[in-house]
Structure formats: structure tokens, C-alpha cells
């Protein structure tokens, strides 16, 4: 894999070095781009049990709980929020909301950009369709989308897409993850295009420029195109838009309070790999459904085998340990990646949907824990990485010990 240019995060940023500018996009995507709603369905919302009182206080000692840093020392939750430019933070323990905070003008009803956390939701839908026998994990992508023949994604298997197993270059360029991410943003968001942009203007055009730089299924390379190709496969199988499919398979079954939405490209196609927005409370409902092995009350929303299968293991041939996309090259590779979900390999069977700027859905069945974090943090080598996962686990073990006491 080509090493990332250390200055590449400064290129094509168009203001993304300022948290206030990032927040403008994370909280107001549908005001800035065409969008399509993900319908919450015809039923009533499912109330979230809560341990919060009328003032919003639930587990006040969490604010003072010392949270360890990677390099030593500790921080408190308010300090963590400041470092992570936190917009929303919600903790559920044993099925009840025990902590909930909204900052910087975000409110409980505000849909917030999920960024790449949305990749995991596409992976979940693919796993459901595979469980139903509608999707063959071992089939080539071209079996479903013939137009992708000759591209890196078309010649890959569905299993390769689900595990970031393609090695791709676009339009003959050497691969640089940060630059390719910015070029993808330019495809789906015309306002982010350079003045002289003459590249692809839609997701499908972008995918058609992808060529293989290595055999699929032999290496891990985190790349948006895998998810966009997979989303197109799911649309072909079901005849539904990504928004309608997510609404049918997931959103209408969790008792969501609000519609979610995807931003659209120039063809009216959803940006499936990162253009999804929803409220923290509804994302927590999704996580709680998965913690409960696919069930919401007495209704099985996702097959139990699918929910349990998120952490069932990485298929043979794929790396068992990979790094988060924003992690420095010197960081230890301690995570696994399965069906577009991150797996911390901790003692609690945890798994996570993760997005740029601090978006996280963290589910830990062993700790009876669901955490949602939305942020607007600048991503740059000069900005320290905030230890969100360590903080989530510290909160979870603290809550579990309090129950035992």
C-alpha cells in the first residue's frame, strides 16, 4: 500500500480544518445537498427506557470518572468532549439510557452525519440478504452489476467488498487514502469540487475508473468504493433504493423517533459509504437491537444469526488485525474487520461502526452497553487522536461493577 502523504489532509479540505465548518456539514447535510429520507415506518416510536431525571441527570458520577489516555494520564468526560469536539453522546446500559449530552447546538431530534459508520449499516443489510439466500457472498460483483466488468470492484467477490479486500487505483493515480477520500467527496458534493474539476460527477462514474492494483481478497485497504459497489448490488437484488431498503430492513423495525436521510449524488443515488444522517437516539436504538441479538421486544428485526455473526470471525484469507483509517502507521494493529464492522477483540464481544470526525456506534454485549458518539473533530496529524474506544470500555466496566456492587 502506498504510504499516505503527510500533507494530504491539507489538500482539498475546503474548510475542514475548522470544527465549526465541519459541524455545518455534520448537522445540516440535507440543507446543503439533495437528500432522500429513510422512513421510520408507520408504527409509533419505541420509547427508550431511561434512568435520567427531569434535569437530564442520570449517572452523574460518569462526568468525574477518570478515563485513561494512550500516552498516560487521564481525562474526564467533559474534557474528552472538548478534545473530540463532541456534538452528541449517549450511553445505554442494560437497556436504559444512563447518560445523554448534546453540545454545540445539537439536540436530541437533530439528525447528525454518521460518516463511515454508515458503512456498517450497509454491511448489516448485506448480511441479512445473504442470510435470506438473496445474496451470494462468493459471487463476483459483475453477477449483479455487469457494467462494472473490468473494474477492481466488478472482478471482486461480494466477500471482498464486505472486508475491504480490493486493491484499487482510480484513473491511473497512485493510491493515497486521504486524497481518494477527498476526491470521493468531490463526486457527491459539488460544492467541494476544485475550480477546474473535470473528474467523475457521480458515484457510478467514479466506480468505473477503478482498476485493480492487486488480487482481491489478499490485503486490507479501506476504501469507499467497496461500499458503493456493494450498495449498487443490493439495489439490483431488491429493486429498492438504499434509503428504502434501510427503512424496510432496519429503520422501521427499531421504533425510530425520526426519519433518517442519505445525501444523493447527481444521479439521485445515495452516498451509501458515508452520506447517512440520523439522531443519536435512533442510532442507539439500532445498537440496542443488535445487543439484544437482533430483537426489539418480542419482534425479531434482524435474524439472530446475523446479529451474533458480526463478531463470529473474519473469513480465511483476510487479515485478523487491521488499523483504523485515521491511525498512524506506527500504531498497533489490534482490530479486526468483518462485514464492514470494526471488532476491538476485547473480552466483551464488542463491535463498532466508526466514522471520521468521531462518529461511533459501540455495542458491547458482554457489558450490556451501547454508546453513540457524534463529533466534528478535525482529522490531521497535528490533532491528537481521542481515545474514544478506551473511554467507552472504561464507562462500561464502571457501570457493570456498579451493578454487581
In short:
The chain is of the alpha+beta class and 405 residues long. It contains twelve helices and 17 strands.
Textual characterization of the structure:
This protein is α+β, with helices and mostly antiparallel strands and 405 residues long. It has twelve helices and 17 strands. It has helices spanning 19-27, 29-32, 77-84, 117-131, 158-162, 177-188, 203-208, 224-238, 242-249, 280-291, 304-309, 388-404, and strands at 35-38, 67-68, 74-75, 86-93, 96-102, 112-113, 167-170, 210-214, 260-263, 276-278, 295-296, 299-300, 336-338, 341-343, 351-355, 359-364, 369-375. A five-stranded antiparallel β-sheet has the order 5-4-17-16-15, with helices on both faces. A four-stranded antiparallel β-sheet has the order 1-9-10-6.
Sum up the structure in keywords.
alpha+beta; globular; 4-stranded antiparallel beta sheet; single chain; disordered N terminus; 17 strands; 405 residues; 17% strand; 12 helices; 5-stranded antiparallel beta sheet
Question: Strands, helices and their partners?
Answer:
Layout (H helix, E strand, L loop, with lengths): L18 H9 L1 H4 L2 E4 L28 E2 L5 E2 L1 H8 L1 E8 L2 E7 L9 E2 L3 H15 L26 H5 L4 E4 L6 H12 L14 H6 L1 E5 L9 H15 L3 H8 L10 E4 L12 E3 L1 H12 L3 E2 L2 E2 L3 H6 L26 E3 L2 E3 L7 E5 L3 E6 L4 E7 L12 H17 L1
Antiparallel strand pairs: 1-9, 2-3, 4-5, 4-17, 6-10, 7-8, 9-10, 11-12, 13-14, 15-16, 16-17
Helix pairs in contact: 4-8
Amino acid at each position: 500500500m502506498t504510504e499516505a502523504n503527510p500533507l494530504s489532509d491539507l489538500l482539498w479540505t475546503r474548510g475542514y480544518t475548522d470544527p465549526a465548518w465541519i459541524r455545518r456539514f455534520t448537522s445540516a447535510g440535507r440543507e446543503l445537498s439533495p437528500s432522500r429520507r429513510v422512513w421510520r415506518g408507520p408504527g409509533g416510536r419505541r420509547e427508550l427506557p431511561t434512568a435520567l431525571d427531569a434535569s437530564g441527570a442520570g449517572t452523574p458520577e460518569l462526568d468525574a470518572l477518570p478515563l485513561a489516555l494512550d500516552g498516560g494520564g487521564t481525562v474526564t468526560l467533559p474534557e474528552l468532549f472538548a478534545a473530540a469536539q463532541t456534538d452528541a453522546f449517549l450511553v445505554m446500559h442494560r437497556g436504559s439510557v444512563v447518560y445523554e449530552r448534546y453540545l454545540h447546538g445539537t439536540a436530541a431530534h437533530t439528525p447528525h452525519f454518521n460518516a463511515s459508520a454508515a458503512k456498517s449499516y450497509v454491511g448489516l443489510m448485506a448480511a441479512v440478504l445473504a442470510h435470506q439466500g438473496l445474496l451470494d457472498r462468493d459471487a463476483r460483483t459483475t453477477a449483479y452489476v455487469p457494467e462494472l466488468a473490468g473494474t477492481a470492484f466488478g472482478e471482486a467477490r461480494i466477500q471482498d467488498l464486505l472486508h475491504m479486500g480490493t486493491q484499487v487505483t482510480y484513473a491511473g493515480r497512485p493510491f493515497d487514502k486521504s486524497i481518494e477520500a477527498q476526491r470521493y467527496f468531490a463526486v457527491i458534493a459539488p460544492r467541494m469540487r476544485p475550480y477546474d474539476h473535470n473528474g467523475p460527477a457521480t458515484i457510478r462514474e467514479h466506480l468505473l475508473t477503478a482498476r485493480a492494483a492487486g488480487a482481491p481478497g489478499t490485503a486490507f485497504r479501506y476504501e469507499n468504493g467497496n461500499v458503493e459497489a456493494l450498495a449498487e448490488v443490493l439495489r439490483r437484488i431488491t429493486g429498492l433504493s438504499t434509503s428504502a431498503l434501510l427503512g424496510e430492513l432496519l429503520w422501521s423495525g427499531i421504533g425510530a423517533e425520526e426519519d433518517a436521510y442519505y445525501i444523493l449524488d447527481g444521479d439521485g443515488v445515495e452516498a451509501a459509504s458515508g452520506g447517512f444522517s440520523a439522531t443519536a437516539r435512533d442510532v442507539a436504538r439500532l445498537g440496542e437491537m443488535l445487543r439484544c441479538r437482533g430483537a426489539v421486544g418480542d419482534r425479531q428485526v434482524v435474524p439472530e444469526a446475523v446479529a451474533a455473526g458480526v463478531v463470529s470471525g473474519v473469513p480465511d484469507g483476510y487479515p485478523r488485525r487491521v488499523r483504523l483509517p485515521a491511525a498512524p502507521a506506527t500504531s498497533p494493529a489490534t482490530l479486526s474487520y468483518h462485514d464492514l464492522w470494526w471488532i476491538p477483540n476485547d473480552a466483551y464481544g464488542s463491535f463498532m461502526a466508526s466514522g471520521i470526525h468521531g462518529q461511533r456506534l459501540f455495542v458491547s454485549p458482554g457489558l450490556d452497553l451501547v454508546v453513540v458518539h457524534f463529533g466534528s473533530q478535525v482529522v490531521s496529524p497535528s490533532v491528537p487522536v481521542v481515545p474514544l474506544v478506551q473511554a467507552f470500555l472504561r464507562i462500561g466496566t464502571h457501570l457493570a461493577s456498579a451493578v454487581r456492587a
